[in-house]
Amino acid sequence: MNKRQYSNTGKSVSEIGFGAWQLGNSQDWEAMAEPAAIELVHEALERGMNFFDTAPNYGLGTSEELLGKALDGKRSSAIINTKFGHAADGQTNYNADQIIRSVEGSLQRLQSDYVDSVLIHNPPFEMLDGKYGHYEELEKLKAAGKILTYGVSVDSVPEMLEVIKHTNIGVMEVMFNIFYQETAEAFKLAQENNIALIIKVPLDSGWLSGKYNSQSTFRESAAAGHRILSASVQPFWSRSGSLPMKRQR
Question: Considering 58, 114, 132, 135, which one is annotated as catalytic?
Answer without folding.
Answer: 58
